[in-house]
Amino acid sequence: MTTTKAAKRTTLLRRGFALEYTTLAWNVVGIVVLAIAAWSARSVALAGFGLDSLIEIGASTVVIWELSGTGEDRQRRALRLIGGAFAALAVYLLVQSTLVLVSGFHPHHSPLGITWTAITAAVMFSLAAGKARTGAALDNPVLKTEGRVTLIDGLLAAAVLVGLLLNLAFGWWWADPLAGYVLVYYAIREAWEIFFGDH
Q: What is the pLDDT of residues 44-57, one digit of tens each?
């Protein structure tokens, strides 16, 4: 590897680490904010999104670990860890959302949840774009996959936001567990892609 290529790779790695540490810090704060919002509103969607943030923390930690080393075996193990976390999230949300719908439980309004999910959607979309570009430049499948995880995080934030707004504006309490089902769909899709897709 030439000096120029090595310097470029070092710069890209630094950028990858910076993106992951930013994601990690945002989601650590998010766990606390979402726990408070979910508890006060009794919202399954906010609780599920909090768990998704926890998975994002795990995924970022895995990528930081993977970027610190090399080898396909290390990449495979990193991808499996991320996929397993998504599968666990899907099972939890499927059960929880179904229980809420069957019991007819009505979540309260959550101004804190609305504010946080709106800001989070914008932040995650920006981070996902950066990870996609950096992962492609490094030809790193783990960073690219985790970039998709971050994109999904942004989409899920938007879905939860819509559910919260519908509940606030029209009293559609069932929009909250339905947003939980949206999370289930994306979690299953990502787990399937990680375990059975072409990386």
A: 778 878 887 888 88
**Is the CB of residue 158 less than 8 Å from the CB of residue 58?**
no
Q: What is the pLDDT of residues 103-141, one digit of tens each?
A: 777 778 889 999 999 999 999 999 999 999 999 998 888
- Asked whether residue 2 is assigned to any structural domain, the reply reads no
Distance CA(58)–CA(97), nearest Å, equals 23
What percentage of the chain has pLDDT greater than the value 90? 27
Check which CATH number belongs to the domain holding 32 and give it.
Answer: 1.20.1510
**Model confidence, pTM:** 0.80
Encoding tokens for residue 164? 């919260």
The dihedral over CA atoms of 113, 117, 123, 127, expressed in degrees to the nearest 10, equals: 120
H runs (alpha helix) in the chain: 3-41, 44-67, 72-103, 111-138, 141-170, 175-196
6 in a domain, yes or no? no
Q: C-alpha distances in angstroms, 93 versus 12, 116, 181, 185, 192?
A: 36, 20, 7, 10, 17
Q: Does a structural domain hold residue 3?
A: no
Q: Show Cβ contacts of residue 66 under 8 Å, excluding neighbours closer than 6 positions.
A: 74, 75, 78, 140, 142, 143
Residue 126 lies in a domain: yes
For the chain, the domain total comes to 1
Instruction: For residue 54, give its domain range.
Output: 11-196
